[in-house]
Amino acid sequence: MKRVAWFSTICVAIAVIAASGALASDSAGGNAKASSEGNADGTANANSDNEVEVRPVASGWPLETVRPPLPERGFRRTEQRDPCRTHDPLRRAHFGDTHVHTALSFDAWGQGTRGRPDDAYRFAKGEELGIQPYDEEGKPGQRVQLRRPLDFAVVTDHAELMGETQICGTPGSPGYDSWVCRLNRFFPKLGYMAVNGRVFQAIGKPRYSMCGPDGALCREVALGPWQETIEAAEAHYDRSRRCVFTSFIGYEWTGMPDGQKIHRNIIFRNEKHQTVPTNYIDTPTSTGLWKTLERECLDRGDGCEAIAIPHNPNVSNGLLFTLNNEDGTPITAEDALLRARLERLVEVTQHKGSSECGLASEDELCTYEKLPFAKLGEETSAALGGTPIPPLSYAREALAEGLVQQRAIGVNPFAFGLIGSTDSHLATPGLVSESDFVGHAAGTTSHRLETPPMPDSLWYNPGGLAVLWAEENSRDSLFAAMQR
């Protein structure tokens, strides 16, 4: 039942993301079939620009022969690149992962992850990757590989602590022998809890003393990992006519006040991006994040575009889809417009459960991977004394409330499509196999020093995939699908 339900969610994602009028009956019938593990577009690419492409039109129908290039339709081109040989104006499904962490994220590094952004993209494209635990010679104790490569992926390492992670993992660097670095190297579980509670679950806390006055050292060091992220995304993006793989520049803004998860993944349309990622330590509100993205990207006039994708409203204690500003005042039409400009998608399923509908839902296709608690760090249901799950903790509730707000203030703040992703902290985008789940390498289940009896918390699962209905596998086409 779980797999059927997950497939239903994927289908909802495709339907919501697709623009009205784009789904002709002959393209939706069998052009692509959702899979929990990769690309299934059934395309046979031509070997040269003059050869034809043969592709199935729909399940059970005869093959159709077309000559590239097909007419352009449905999205703006913002980059200089070769046109994709395979272009379908009726659109087809593309499978990927928009939520991936590597050794550049503090929690992933603390749990023993060694894969970098370059490794993550190689894995997404089908290469094998060794993962922790590692022996004294540095040989990995496990090896993983996708059964089918992905069409696209985004490395979204935490913007917070990028500099601190680099310092703690680089012998001889200033701060390497600080207590917080030593704690995380030798006692990863304790280190995770200490850092998570101080940095991600608080507001206004200063950086650690190893960062120097005003945190200047850590901010400066963080520029290196951010540049590595950018270079990996640029290097792995297939700009040839084959259009086999698309990578985007991105990061995660990781706010979680008092365990209430309000995280967002930020994805840039093309090679234009922020100089430095916005982080929760320096910008501890959602409104602050949106305004910073407007100022440093959307409104700067050089073609920079971005979207913000929230995830896990199921453990946000109702804070992610709140109808109030941070100061307690009700949102206005201007506030709703600001949010709607950036938040066009919600990650509705990932390793920390499904956020589509609540525990009381009578829809049997939505009653899977439910977490019975309101926020992280309090994994106790209301029946056992935990915080009751409040309204607006799930995507379906928010979609309905958005229509109410449309009538009340004239703007719908919650007009979004649905996707899945993994939130992998192993540098393994798309690793969603349930039969050999190896965990996600974050939290208190540590693989750094040994393989634990259970790969992850009993509450968690391998996660899902993002499915985008697009004309071709290019940044512009996929980004337009995300915006729709």
Structural commentary:
The chain has 484 residues and is of the alpha/beta class. Strands 7-6-3-14 form a 4-stranded mixed sheet, with helices on both faces. The protein has a 3-stranded antiparallel sheet with strand order 8-9-10, with helices on both faces. A hairpin with a 2-residue loop joins strand 11 and strand 12. Helix 5 packs across helix 6 and helix 5 packs across helix 8. The chain is globular and about 60 Å long. The two termini are 30 Å apart.
Helix content: 25-40%
How many DSSP E strands?
Answer: 14
- Measured by DSSP, the beta-strand proportion falls in 5-15%
pLDDT average, as an integer?
Answer: 84
- Order of strands in the sheet with the most strands? 7-6-3-14
Q: How many angstroms separate the termini?
A: 30 Å
Radius of gyration: 22 Å
Largest sheet: 4 strands, mixed
| Oligomeric grouping of the chains | single chain
The helix/strand series, from N terminus to C terminus, equals HHEEEHHEEEHHHHEEEHEHEEHEEH
Cα shape: globular
Broad structural category: alpha/beta
Q: Please give the count of helices.
A: 12
Low-pLDDT parts are 1-72
Features:
484 residues, alpha/beta, 3-stranded antiparallel sheet, 12 helices, disordered N terminus
